[in-house]
Structures are given as C-alpha cells and as structure tokens.
Amino acid sequence: MTRYVFILYMALFAGIVHASAQQITHEQKAAIIETTAGLLDEHYVFPDKAKIVGKMLVDKLKNRGYDSFRDGEAFIQVLNEDLTTALSDQHIKITFDPRRVKQIKMEKDNDGKKLPLTKEWFERLRFENFRLRKVEWMDGNIGYFRFLNFTELDVAKEAISASMTFIRHSDAIIIDLRDNGGGHSETLHYLLSYFLPDRQKIGEFHYRKNNRVEEIRIPSDTSVKKIPNDVPLFLLVSRKTSSAAEGMASVLQSSGRAIVVGERTRGEGNPGELFILNDNLYMMIPTAVSKNVWPEKLPVEGHGVQPDHVIASELALEKAKLEICKTFASSSKIKELKQSYLWQIPVWEYAIAPQTMPEYFRSTLCGSYNEGRQIIYENGMYYYVNKDKQQFRLMNYGQNILAMEGKPFVRIRIPANEQKITYFEFIWDDEFSERVARIE
Description:
By secondary structure, this protein is an alpha+beta fold. Helix content is 37%, strand content 24%.
C-alpha cells in the first residue's frame, strides 16, 4: 500500500511536469503576457518599472520574439528570465502548479481571508513532512535543524515545535538554510520568536497599495520556550538561500543573535503575494519594500545577506562546528570539556582545508617500531600498521600531529625538526600518551 501511494504521488508530480511541457499556441502566450503585464501594472511594488517591463513583454510578443518557444515549459522559462532581468528582481516568478492555483483561488475568492488548506495541498505538504528535513543531535551537544521552506504555520507548527523542543537543551544550535527557498512570513516570525524577545521590532513593510506601512514585530506565543541567549546560534546559507530564509538570517545576524556562515544569499528581500494567471499558472509579485531597523545594514533586496564567515556552502557545516569548538575551548571552565573541544578543532580544520603529508616523511617517518608496529607508504598514502597487521590511513593535522582514519580518540605525535624520527607518541583525547621507539 505504501509503495502504491508513493507511485501515485510521484505520478501526480510527473503530470505537472508533463503538462507544463505541452505545446503552447501564440494565442495562449498572448493571454499569459497580457495578464502578466496587467498584474505587474496593478500590483508590482515599483509602478514605473512595471509599466516599462509590461510594455517590453507585449512588444516582444508582437515582434515574434517568443515564436521559437513551442512548449509551455520553455516559454515560461524564458518569460521568467525576461522578467527577472528587466526588473532586476530575483523574487518575481511564474510557476506552473494547478493544485497551488486552486488553493490561491480559494483564498482570493474569500477576500484573502485565511482558509483551511485544500485536501490536495495539505496531503502534498504532509507527504513532504512540511518541508522539514532533519533534526539531529551532533557530537559536542550541538543541535542541528534543516528545512527547505517556511510552509503554512497552521499545518507545520506542531512539527516545527517538536524540532525546536528536541534541540532546545543543546549547548549550540545550527540551523541549515542552505537549500531554503523561503515561504510564509508568519512561520518565519514564529521561528524567530524562539530566539528574540516578544514584541521586538524587526522591520517594516512599505506597501504600494494605499501607501500602507506595517510594523513587523516578534509575536507573543505562550507555547514557545525561548532558547537562552547564551546558546550560540549559527545559520548556514548559500547562493540558493532566498526570501523568508534570507529574512531569518538578516534579522538574527543584525540583532547580534546569530553568526551566519556560507555564501552571500540571493537578495530576494521584498515581500509579495501570489496571483493567478490562469488555471495552471500563478505568479509571485513583490508588493512591498522591506525595511530593516538596523540602518547600518544593507537591505536584503538586491544585496543578499553577507555571511560573517564566507566559505563554500558545502563546507559551511564544518566551518560552523569549527567556530563552535573554538568558542567553547576558550570559554569552558571545565577541564574535560575544554580538552574535548580542543581535540575537535583540528578535525574540522582538516575537513575544511586538508594538509598533505611532507615528501620527506617517506625517508624520516616510514619504518618499523616496537611491538611489530609500522608506518608505511603505499599508493601515495601513509598508513599506520598495528601489531595485528591492521592498516589505518594517516592524515596530517599539522603541528606534528597525525590522525588515524577510524580511530577518533587516539592520534600520533611525531618529534619536530628531526632528520630521522627515532620514536613517535600515541596521544589520547584524555591527554594520556605512550612513546613508541623505532627499531633500527
């Protein structure tokens, strides 16, 4: 039964992809562009730009600029490229999704009032676990939480609350936003409430419609158990981090509550609404300018969030762990904990920037040692061989320390500045050591 449900669900999504790739007529293109131009003119946050770009799209259609795009998917792709380029706005986007259109239509027909999700849309979110991907305890009592979108709070709140409860007793927390494409501001503000005081002002939305200004404050929710301020918080970001995820990174960084690690984010800072183009297509249109309360900070829109520690996104988790270990190694008053964090620092340094073995190790380090132990060189790698003839690849942690793959609690320390090494030492994570002499 489970397999059947999975296949059926995948078939539904395959239908969406297939449908979007169907042939599209000139008349259908004209209807989409006319509606797009009209929605921009009525709702886009910068009306002067909207008029210019709307006319540009209509003129391109009249001049047969879209004739070579025969299927719907290719046409929508190039139309999105034209919109983002002409408006210099990464947030504006047309999407093919008939089920989402159905949900939007219900909301629009009820004057935007919050309605229960359609059964189809709820099942889609539930199947995806509301886009929550991982909550985990990591070595060093680090709590880790990764999710892909800020889905509707009404349905996601229970799962988010459970995730935050799981990590609330961590000594440090890492929230992974590297693949997060944003979502609902209500859910964003709920998550922020775990880290910031109730009613703290975090920004303003300046709407085009009626020149309305909305203050954005942290909501008060009695169900939220605050994460103490002395728990270090790290946010991982990438070039794919966008919209509400950028808002989370910007607010927590600007307020001094979090350290951001990774790559500069996309720069989609202005909030917007979803508008229907037809029964299959909807469009995200920014309808307000987002302004922060930290004037010294650049706005997210067009600039993105600049990380405190810039590093390739695939190494951001290791970098965050390294910074956590450094923080606690310097601040811990408990000797055993301090030693534990000091022990982990070279692990993450090596993961970020592996050091090669010096060439002279082949002549100075390789050889036989007491009790049948050896250090050998094979196929470009160095290995420690124990008395049972088991081999463990050696890694250079620097400062004359070698780690053994698969042996996290013991390392090899070699004497410095010797032309030929006459001994090495085993050192353990509890600072116990053992000297092993070379056999000539």
